[in-house]
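so ive been stuck on this for like two days lol. basically i have the seq below and the ligand is pyridoxal-5'-phosphate, smiles is in there too. i just want the complex predicted, nothing fancy, no docking runs or whatever. if the output looks off dont worry ill sanity check it later, just need somthing to start from for the group meeting slides
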Amino acid sequence: MKKFDPATNIQAIDMKDAQRGVNPSICDSATFMFEKAKTMTDTFHGETEGYFLYSRHWNPSTLALCKALAAMEGTELAWTTGSGMAAITVALLHEVKAGDHILSSMTTYGGTFAFLNNYIKKFGVEVDFVNMQDLDAVKKAIKPNTKVLYTETMNNPLLRIANIPELSKIAHANGAKLLVDNTFTPMIFSPYQLGADVVIYSMTKYVNGMNDCVAGAICGTADYINSLINVNDGTAMLLGPVLDPMRSASIQKNLHTLHIRMKQHSANAMYLAKRFKETGIKYNYPGLPEHVDHELFTEMMNEGFGYGGMISIDMGTADRASAIMEKMQELGVGYLAVSLGYFKTLFSNSGKSTSSEVPEDIQKEMGMSEGLIRFSVGLDNDPERTFQLIKQAIEATK
Ligand SMILES: *Cc1c(COP(=O)(O)O)cnc(C)c1O
């Protein structure tokens, strides 16, 4: 296990503002004034410390959140966006030009898959999808023009784990960068510490955890982040998907409870996994030794945050899954809704929702059953009650 403690890194940050308020104040300004014209010119060229120019570039409130995120990942810097998809598309577009090649995991978030499979190709970028669990297949699929290896640390909905240290070696040996979406497993994994070049989040999920906003983040070296926001050719600066400072401030406050939430999400999911196992319900959870990637997970994880809050059960058919989900909602297990990382339990049928952009033949190749119900387990205080309600829903629909 790696000795890296993202939670303590966040806790160590001095958050006080200029008036000694304990939370960073919200800087409600789009533009910033200068006493001297020369300072403005220098700031434009990125040559002044402590000056802000315009909030599409930096804003003090978003910078405070970015510093906290960088502390969490152990990167030099971070940049926040108005959605996870904005973070993903900006990070990918920044690395490639026409004629370049992106090698992506076959199992990515549906929107990412759609962007890579249907959208980015119109700019003359080649994309191939590969089973990231098969390192030999990855090596074979690398081409001389491969610039990016793209994967999620934990994939959806099968909860397979990417071998970040090995993928990093493969990418770097071929002059490519490894970009990792760590949305499902903040704190649990620190991909940059494991060799990734760039770490991406949809903060909509666990990082914020309140389901009250959509937001994203990109973490990396200072040179890299500064190149993203370069006024002449920075993808983030030019496409402009900036996060609002008011939202930055609210996300930053939630970030300070992320470690406690992750521990509880993980503990509750582990509880359900054990009860599903005892009861003979077909389940999938990387925290138990039966999961194919349990060992790899354990080798890569930071200590103390558990095996995550995502768990799935296989109910065979889509109709059966639908009936069970409706019954679970009626009984109060949580909501039939997409998304994850919320304090209430959310569930959905992956094949018909969050992975519906993935063609059915690829779903089959991934090993996805049409009756798969994915749970994002909430912060329930009594997980035995949750289990009993799920069991009741399963039995009621037999
Ligand atoms: C939700 C999600 C995204 C997209 O993020 P948005 O904030 O909805 O734009 C990307 N990757 C993963 C793994 C996600 O779960």
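The chain has a mean pLDDT of 94. Residues 83-85, 88, 109, 111-112, 152, 181, 183-184, 202, 204-205, 214, 216 surround pyridoxal-5'-phosphate (CB under 6 Å).
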